[in-house]
Amino acid sequence: MKYDVVIIGGGPAGLSAALAVRKEGIDSILIIERDDKLGGILNQCIHNGFGLHTFKEELTGPEYACRYIEKVLEEKIEYKLNCMVIGISDDRKVTYVSKEDGLCTVEAKAVILAMGCRERPRGALNIAGFRPAGIYSAGTAQRLMNIEGYKVGNEVVILGSGDIGLIMARRMTLEGAKVKCVAEVMPYSGGLKRNIVQCLNDYDIPLFLSHTVIDIKGKERVESVVIAQVDENRKPIPGTEKEYKCDTLLLSVGLLPENELSKLANVELSRVTNGPVVSDSFETNVEGIFACGNVLHVHDLVDYVSSEADLAGTYAAKYVKNQKGDREYLDVEARDGVRYTVPQKIDVKNMEDRIIVRFRVSNEFRGKSIVVEADGKEIRRVKKRVLAPGEMEQLFLNKAELEGVKKLCVCLKESV
Amino acid sequence: MILMKYDVIVIGGGVTGCAILRELSKYDLSVALLEKEEDVCSGTSKANSAIIHAGYDAENGTLKAKLNVRGSELTKQLAKDLNFGYRNNGSFVVCFDEGDRPGLEKLYERGVKNGVKGLEIIEGDKAREMEPNLSKNVVAVLYAPSAAIVCPFEMTIALGENAVENGAKVFLNTKVTDIKRKDDGFIINDEFECKAIVNAAGMYGDVIHNLVCDEKIELTPRKGDYCLFDRECGDLVKHTIFQLPSKFGKGVLVAPTAHGNMLIGPSATDISDKEGNNTTIEDLDMIIDKAKLSVDNIPFNKVITSFCGLRARPKGDDFVINEAADGFFDAIGIESPGLSSAPAIGEYVGDMVTARLGAKKKENFKETRDGLKKLNKMNYEERGKLIKENPLYGNIICRCEEISEGEIVDAIHSVIPATSLDAVKRRVRAGMGRCQGGFCSPKVMAILARELNIPFEDVRKNNAESPMVYGKLGQDDEI
Q1: CB-based contact B306 A126, cutoff 8 Å
Q2: CATH number for the segment(s) B91-145+222-273+288-304
Q3: A297 and A383 belong to one structural domain
Q4: Structural domain range at position A361
Q5: Do the Cβ atoms of B391 and A99 come within 8 Å?
Q6: What are phi and psi of A114, to 5 degrees?
Q7: Which of A44, A99, A240, A264 to mutate to test the interface with B (most CBs of B within 10 A)?
Q8: Best residue of A35, A93, A103 to probe chain B, by most B CBs closer than 10 Å
Q9: What is the mean pLDDT of residues A223-243?
Q10: Which of B87, B352, B374, B400 has the highest Cβ tally under 10 A?
Q11: Do residues A127 and A80 share a domain?
């Protein structure tokens, strides 16, 4: 089978990308989804707060997904469920398996990677202790509660203040569990401010910053966890240990873009984002392979995923129609408190008049400004009261100001 | 009460017990194995270095030396016959100081005496050509080309299943708490009767021994912590890299695993709790520091899990394998190189027991076992064909290790059935990958519930005390 555009992943990124491709007039599109329904992780995010930017209203995850799914159905875009992609080649042959189709290879003029991300497991932190039942990543617990409908635990400690962990603190409380505390190893929260307020403060759940779990007790099911304060090197401080009796430990300790397939296609990955390195058209180093959403870099808001994927879909469609010619890239350097940017490089000659650059900072900063320098000259300065790694930042760049530029950088500087 | 009668009962379903069971199943005997957990391979056999040692460590003349070298030879063929993961990757023992060279030479000589083939001392630079990430500080290496790595889960399960295919019985969830002597044998738990007992109870070998024998013994748990790395790091080293051994064992190793991950560890700390298989910050820090000495560029941010195993350490330095009382055979104190020796321990104990009972070899012993299908090891064509035959092979459940529903169903209904999440994981690796079951565990739970015809909330991580969830939501809301 041959398609113009094959999209891997039917979550928010894949759906939005598909609609954008269709809007460009391309008919031959295939979305390949591994789950039994479209919508991706949104299906288990039954809390509200989605869509404030996109639809100017507060939707739940499934409602937000539904808006896109309905349009995909209206547009009669072809999709396959329960299909797992097991291989992509750099000449854009995509191989998947499923119960219905067996093992199948499809060819595409353009591929859009939209596989999303996964949670970091306990092992990634090397937490000492036993390995009993009752240790869940927050998303797994969310699935067990919201999709399967089961009670995951009665007394809970949460490690990590990522957004899913905060959401689950509230969710488990509402289902009658006692959430004893949230421990965060960093001196600042990893989640959105609004989630700290609405999910912890409103329910009197304490948040211990600069604390981590140093021991897990209980041979078969979790019986307690020991939490300790950490020093500036994130090493536990002796004498600060506190033991919390609980049957469940939830981990919300970071998300990792899921790029195993990208590697098979020889897509270059960023060591900072763990996602592909892309240009302003969201194209990876492999011609005709594009990426968007959480597989590219982890987002806070699904609204941003949708708008990013919309752009990626548009560019992929344009690529199919025009097979864009020579590319000449200007690298975007991220430094002095800026961890990375997406895109990492800009094709100034072919770029749109105005593009959006998204990034995260490496620490909590106060009184700093976001600065863009072109060939050493400041072309943008935005004053910020507070900057935090948990909140994605963005700025716009204009083609006019980048023409002829040899060196471009985004950084933080003291506000004046 | 009706007793279940067997000629021989093996206590303990670790690699030692399963190897002995298989050996006994070659004879015209009725044999059974009792395992206290919900699956075989639930103790020391599931948490170790997964190494088939060449056999230069043990003192010449010991059981360890003899059984290790023999076991290493047997394992190579067994892996083919029984279909378990095995790779003959060779090992290095490294030394960092010219002053340690005599230690290396001593190991070499001991190995030659023990009958290890192909041993060679090579210089640091040559070793680094073979193993580019070997530390610059390594001055010389004892190279043992016969050393190998195995999947210890598959190996244990394969031995046990092949025994069952040859008529042996395996009783899971059966903890031995009582053994009575009768004229010509034993009664166990007032449930089983047998002529001979083989005690392969691992960490509890002393407890079982002391139920029967007047001369009491004690086994000390020696814990060892490990870190397992993402498959991405599986190529960092090709050989198993040891450091010169000390009185606390063979030191910290860095090794690839049979499934393409990388492993570092173990520590060696004596403890008192036979259930104390918890990792500790001290031990994890220690193995990380030691591993860095042997190998450069270890990506410590790629650890996907850490775990701890307990070795059952006897008072002496050797395995305890003998007829401790009439008809009661010990195969205990099986610390390293226990996994490497297991097939040879099987032979050795099998000979003792069958001689005692005057048993004869069966003619129809089936030497081989097919084992479970592994779709991700097949080419696209074979795989497509299998999915056509059974569409469940097309439904991927564990995305990290690419394991299908069909493979999980096969494991649940295999010769020794998997009835828990951990048992499924050990057989087919669902949940063994980089997300550590984050995505697949709810799905595997649903498959277990369906195939075993039990409620979802009754699915366990391992034994009965390890529930995953506590009933349906909303059940407390009754008025």
Answers
A1: yes
A2: 3.30.9.10
A3: no
A4: 328-416
A5: yes
A6: -145, 50
A7: A99
A8: A103
A9: 96
A10: B400
A11: no
- Taking only residues 394 to 413 of chain B, the set having a beta carbon closer than 8 angstroms to any beta carbon of chain A reads 394-396, 399-400, 402, 404
Residue B474: its pLDDT value, please? 79
Q: Considering only alpha carbons, which residue of chain A is nearest residue B393?
A: A99
DSSP state at residue A283: B
- Average pLDDT of chain B is 95
Residues of B in contact with A34 (CB under 8 A): 396, 399
Å between A319 CA and nearest CA of chain B? 30
How confident is the model at residue A95, as a pLDDT? 97
Assign B185 to helix, strand or coil.
strand
Q: Select from A226, A253, A280 the last residue of a domain.
A: A253
* Number of structural domains found in chain A: 3
| A 99-128 near B (Cβ less than 8 A) | 99-103, 105, 118-119, 121-124, 126, 128
Query: Which CATH number among 3.40.50.300, 3.30.390.10, 1.10.10.1100, 3.30.43.10 corresponds to the domain B375-458?
Result: 1.10.10.1100
- Is A62 part of the contact surface with chain B (CB cutoff 8 Å)? no
pLDDT at res. B1: 73
DSSP helix/strand/coil, B325: strand
CA–CA dist B398, B442 (Å, integer): 11
Instruction: Write out the DSSP string of A48-78.
Output: EEE-TTTTSS-EEHHHHHHHHHHHHHHTT-E
**Options 3.30.465.10, 3.40.50.10540, 3.50.50.60, 3.60.10.10; which CATH number does B1-85+151-219+314-371 get?**
3.50.50.60
Could you tell me what percent of chain B has a pLDDT over 70?
Answer: 98
Mean predicted lDDT score pLDDT of chain A: 95
- Residue B443 sits at the chain A interface (C-beta within 8 Å): no
Total-model pTM: 0.95
**CATH code (residue A237):** 3.50.50.60
Could you tell me the pLDDT band of residue B476, with boundaries at 50, 70 and 90? low
**Cβ of A221 and B467 within 8 Å?**
yes
What's the distance, Cα to Cα, between the start and end of chain B in Å? 47
Q: Counting one residue from A and one from B, how many pairs have CB atoms under 8 Å apart?
A: 146
- pLDDT tens track for B10-60: 999 999 999 999 999 999 999 999 999 999 999 999 999 999 999 999 999
Same domain for A145 and A171? yes
Give the whole-angstrom CA distance, residue A196 versus residue A176.
Answer: 20
Known catalytic residue at B53: yes
Q: State the Cα torsion A304-A305-A311-A316 to the nearest 10°.
A: 170
Question: Which of A229, A253, A277 is the endpoint of a domain?
Answer: A253
Q: Which of A374, A416, A376 is nearest to A395 (CA)?
A: A374
Facing A150 at nearest CB: one of B306, B400, B469: B469
Per-domain boundaries in chain B: 1-85+151-219+314-371, 91-145+222-273+288-304, 375-458
Q: Is A98 on the interface with B (CB under 8 A)?
A: yes
CB contact under 8 A, A220 and B404: no
- Rounded to whole angstroms, the Cα distance separating B353 from B368 reads 23
Render A305-320 in DSSP notation, one character per residue: HHHHHHHHHHHHHHHH
For B97-101, the CB contacts below 8 A with 24+ separation are B97/B139, B98/B139, B100/B244, B101/B139, B101/B140
- Within 10 Å of residue A414's Cβ, how many Cβ atoms? 9
* A259 in the same domain as A114: yes
Helices (H) and strands (E) in chain B, counts: 12, 22
Q: Residue B479 — pLDDT band, cuts 50, 70, 90?
A: very low
